[in-house]
Structures are given as C-alpha cells and as structure tokens.
Amino acid sequence: MVGGSHNGWSGQDKYFHCMANCQAAQKGMGGSAAAQCISDGHEWFDQSIKGDSAADSAADQLANRLGQSSGRISPAGSCSQMCGSYRPGGNFPC
Question: What is the pTM of this model?
Fold first, then answer.
C-alpha cells in the first residue's frame, strides 16, 4: 500500500508524491503539465471525498511541487536523490 505505513516505513507518502512528479516532469513539458494536473486532482479528491485535512493536502502539494521543479531543472538527475528529504529512514528501497 503506497502512502500508508507499510512494512514500518512511516512517512513514505510524501516521498512517492515527490518521486512520481519528478519522474513525470523529467519527460518534458507534457509530463510536467500532466503531473501538475493529476496532483491537483488527486489532492482535490483526497480533501473532498476522502476527507483529508487541508494541512495534509498542502504538505502533499509541497512534495509534488518539489518533484516537479526538480525534474524540470534536472531532467537526467536522480529523482531519488532530489526527493531525498522525503525519503523514509530505515531499510527503505529507492
């Protein structure tokens, strides 16, 4: 389960938000635009339908935007490294 506390890796949700957006943005303008659109829709759904808090959604969007900007700035870079500030500790796979 991505986003939950799976195998003891708490906090992985923001890492995957960042990674997905980074990888999409590395595909160029279309990927970056798609990442933003999908992320915005995802957060709307999470708040409006699932009932997530505005604070959690804002934190998710921060991770989304970091991924998008990192992917645009460094299209050949390592998203895992660029999203490292969100990477959970422990024995978490990249």
Answer: 0.83
Rounded to the nearest 10°, the torsion over CA 63, 69, 72, 78 is -50
Which whole-number Å values give the CA distances from 85 to 72, 73, 80, in the listed order?
18, 17, 9
Q: Is 30 exposed, middle or buried (0-12, 13-18, 19+ CB in 10 A)?
A: exposed
**Tokens encoding 80:** 């895992």
Task: Say whether 9 sits in a helix, a strand or coil.
Answer: strand
AA letter at 13: D
Mean pLDDT across the stretch 42-47?
A: 95
Q: Quickly state the pLDDT bin for 41 (edges 50, 70, 90).
A: very high
